[in-house]
Amino acid sequence: MKAKGKVFRYGDNVDTDVIIPARYLNTSDPMELAKYCMCDIDQDFVKQVQEGDIIVADANFGCGSSREHAPLAIKTAGVSCVIAASFARIFYRNSINIGLPILESPEAVANIEAGDEVEVDFDTGAITNVTKGQSYQGQAFPPFMQEIISAGGLVPYINENLLEK
């Protein structure tokens, strides 16, 4: 699996209340959530994000509440991957559960800027900054996690692989 897109760049401690503010949690409709993704930190995000684009952030991305709405809003907005120096653990797990690929790579984060075009190979963890001609190494997903992400999340994975057998 690979992703390629333009980078939206954020700093440290981007919490789930910024990713999808609580005032928009009166729905669980992914398309409705996506309309407000990142609106409190980047009002132009939903107007500019294109299918396949990538979020790059510093440390502790996804901290705050454990709501699954945050990675769901990001994925439904069209983001193909989030790369960060580190993630809040519950956000990391929620992302895998809903099929949003995320990679930790402090080196990549230190060298990638907003607007750069980046390509990610999820099988190997390779991150290539196409704009700058630089490559970095992130942690590749174990095969079972790749299967969950490829299926679109944990529930579709279970439906495809366990319930049908």
List keywords for this structure.
single chain; 8 helices; alpha/beta; 34% helix; seven-stranded mixed beta sheet; 165 residues
Describe this protein's structure:
- By secondary structure, the chain is α/β, with parallel strands linked by helices.
- Helices cover 34% and strands 20% of the residues.
- A seven-stranded mixed beta sheet has the order 4-3-2-1-5-6-7.
- Helix 4 crosses helix 5 and helix 7 crosses helix 8.
- The longest helix has 10 residues.
- The chain is globular, with a radius of gyration of 15 Å.
- The two termini are 25 Å apart.
- The mean pLDDT is 92.
Helix and strand arrangement:
Blueprint: E1 2-10, H1 16-19, H2 30-34, H3 45-48, E2 54-57, H4 69-76, E3 81-84, H5 89-98, E4 102-104, H6 106-111, E5 117-121, E6 126-129, E7 134-137, H7 143-151, H8 154-163
Parallel strand pairs: 1-2, 2-3, 3-4
Antiparallel strand pairs: 1-5, 5-6, 6-7
What is the gist of this entry?
34% of the residues lie in helices and 20% in strands.
Q: Which sequence of strands runs across the widest sheet?
A: 4-3-2-1-5-6-7
Strand content bin: 15-25%
Which stretches of 5+ consecutive residues score pLDDT under 50?
none
- The helix-strand sequence is EHHHEHEHEHEEEHH
* Cα separation of the termini: 25 Å
Mean pLDDT across every amino acid position: 92
Number of strands: 7
The Cα radius of gyration reads 15 Å
Helix proportion: 25-40%
